[in-house]
Write the structure tokens for this entry.
Amino acid sequence: MRLEAAKKHFNLLIQHKRLAHAYLFTGELGQAKKKLVETIIQALVCKHFDAEGRACLNCMDCQRITRGQFADHMAIEPDGRSIKVDQIRGLKEWLGTSPIEADFKIATIEQADLMGPAAANALLLFLEEPSPNVYIFLFSRQAEQLLPTIQSRVQEVILEDDKADSQMDQMLQAGIRDQHARVMLKLSVNRLKNLMDDYEAESFEDWLKALEYFYQLLMQKDPYAFVAIQQHLKSYLNFNQGQDGLDYLNWLNAQLLLSHYPSKENYLGSLQKRVNMIKERINHQVSHTSYHRMNQLLMDSKKLLMSNVTSQLAYEHLAIKMCEWK
Ligand SMILES: [Zn+2]
């Protein structure tokens, strides 16, 4: 959604008293996320809203909010390289006290993907039983960077700029298949140029198929997964492609988990077909905990890769850990 469309959407939600308790704003636009929260607070507070629920922006309340002087909003940012569990505990304490100037409280968590497991779990307990009149907004570049358990309890709003469309157009014009272009846009932004430069349709497709086959074996805890690394993935295990592969598996895993929550409508375009096909193959054999386990192991493997372990070993670690898990 573009920022203006998102503002309109939230104004109407608030007007009809349908604002949910937790949202996740994703996309590249940091300032747009803040602007959207400001609009939401104004729509909740302003008494001079118009027929579409838009705040007047002129009254004392609106102006104070624009200046960032609204007392019932707390913003959490990473303390150093992560968001600490104490910050989340502090936030929960603050949310438990009465609001000062409004009849609700709002919290925003910036770079929510930097929450460590302890912080994420502390927040999770809160998301599971949200207090009335408390609204939480998480910011992250991509939903997949958050724990699936958190993803499943928030509504995602993807904030896009015109750049994403033009990138997609550019890729299609360069002869990249629609599905492949969408996959590339899910992988690291820094890698996009290299992926486009190295692109060759057949081999890209073979790589995705090999990863999907590997994923399927892992979810079935089939020890053949270990052999499949040698037989099907070996030529895609340089450092960058190894990492891209883990990112793709992570994305795929998150989509499959989320597809079990009917309220989550994630627009996947032409990738929906791919996801559905894998879902059909594994669906009746796996439990929700398998997705969570997979998510954890994928993060572990990525950490291994970052600490200079070879891609092959990182993938083997994944296969062993998944297959031995009861
Ligand atoms: Zn106003």
In short: The chain has 15 helices and five strands. The CA atoms of residues 227 and 316 lie 9 Å apart. The first strand starts at residue 22 and ends at 26.
